[in-house]
């Protein structure tokens, strides 16, 4: 997938309603997870990515900073994220507990 043609999301679009269930890819275009939800704090927003599993079963939620994802829309308007993290690196992060 050529992300260079995709439109970055505006800050006003970075809401849970827009981002929930969006796929996240690594720089090699491997799907590494799905955005589960957001945690907005005083200093920063965290994105909880569900990693691994199948159809939501056996996934591990991990939190990363919103600034660690490139969030964009493809040519069809579908939102997705691109990360420098690999699936293995995300799996190695501590599990996020609500």
Automatic annotation (TrEMBL):
Gene3D superfamilies: PRC-barrel domain. SUPFAM superfamilies: PRC-barrel domain. This is PRC-barrel domain-containing protein. It comes from Tabrizicola soli.
């Amino acid at each position: 997938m050529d992300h260079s043609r995709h439109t970055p999301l505006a800050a006003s679009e970075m809401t849970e309603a827009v981002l929930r269930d969006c796929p996240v890819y690594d720089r090699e275009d491997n799907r590494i997870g799905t955005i589960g939800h957001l945690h907005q704090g005083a200093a920063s927003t965290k994105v909880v990515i569900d990693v691994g599993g199948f159809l939501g079963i056996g996934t591990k939620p991990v939190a990363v900073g919103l600034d660690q994802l490139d969030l964009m829309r493809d040519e069809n308007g579908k939102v997705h994220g691109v990360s420098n993290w690999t699936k293995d690196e995300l799996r190695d992060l501590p599990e996020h507990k609500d």
